[in-house]
Amino acid sequence: GQQLNQSPQSMFIQEGEDVSMNCTSSSIFNTWLWYKQDPGEGPVLLIALYKAGELTSNGRLTAQFGITRKDSFLNISASIPSDVGIYFCAGHNTGTASKLTFGTGTRLQVTL
Amino acid sequence: NAGVTQTPKFQVLKTGQSMTLQCAQDMNHEYMSWYRQDPGMGLRLIHYSVGAGITDQGEVPNGYNVSRSTTEDFPLRLLSAAPSQTSVYFCASSRTTGRAGYTFGSGTRLTVV
């Protein structure tokens, strides 16, 4: 089955730094979603993108739906310790029922 | 509002045993799915349901059964547990086709020895 490639796989950053991560696919999607998973918990939806080129923010998080519809990007500004976790992208196409295709995840660790 | 509730949170099984992972949602969502999460593999779809009485296979269905007799419940059955099924299992639900994103449960960590 298809999976989305996320990079980087993991990153260590210092508090206050900006973070960028991306997600790429071999096929197009109509919807891109970004989730965050805290340790021991299920993923929680951060941002949903519905249109190619769309740029959407949620607090310090900004995500973009790539023009080609085959990629998406997530930026976190001024990171804080609670940003620690695994960030997943997910793609969805209409007509595929409930199926979301998930990325492999980017593990973020923030040092003081 | 409880959202998606999964039980148990932890389980250890012996090879060959069977068990059912429970999932219930109180949001009247039509769509429900089961995913497994393994290190470096992200989330992989096991089975999903678009409504009561309707289920279908996902990416990795072998060794698992599901049923959907009510809108609220979507149990996952392991027929004969194998060490390869050691994983963290997540149930998720959505009101629409998934376009708005899923609400996930907090997971069941299963170890098969």
What does this structure look like?
The complex is a heterodimer of chains A (112) and B (113). Chain A is an all-beta fold. In chain A, 0% of the residues lie in helices and 52% in strands. In chain A, strands 2, 4, 5, 9, 10 and 11 form a six-stranded mixed sheet that branches. Helices cover 0% and strands 51% of the residues of chain B. Chain B is mainly beta. The chains are: A mainly beta (112), B mainly beta (113). Chain A binds chain B through residues 1, 3-4, 6, 9, 30-31, 33, 35, 40-45, 48, 50, 88, 90, 92, 94, 96-100, 102-105, and chain B through 4, 31-33, 35, 40-45, 48-50, 56, 58-60, 90, 92, 94, 97-107.
Give helix % range of chain B: under 10%
N to C succession of SSEs of chain A: EEEEEEEEEEE
Largest sheet of chain B: 7 strands, mixed
The helix tally of chain A amounts to 0
Give the overall shape of chain A, derived from the CA principal axes.
Answer: globular
Could you state the order of secondary-structure elements of chain B as H and E? EEEEEEEEEEE
Query: Helical content of chain A, roughly?
Result: under 10%
Strand content of chain A: over 45%
Work out the oligomeric state of the chains in this entry.
Answer: heterodimer
| Count of runs of 4 or more consecutive helical residues of chain B | 0
Note poorly predicted spans of chain A.
none
Write down the overall mean pLDDT of chain B. 93
List the chains of the largest interface with their residue counts: A-B, 30 and 32 residues
Mean model confidence by pLDDT of chain A: 91
How many beta-strand runs of chain B? 11
Strand portion of chain B:
over 45%
N-to-C CA distance of chain B: 36 Å
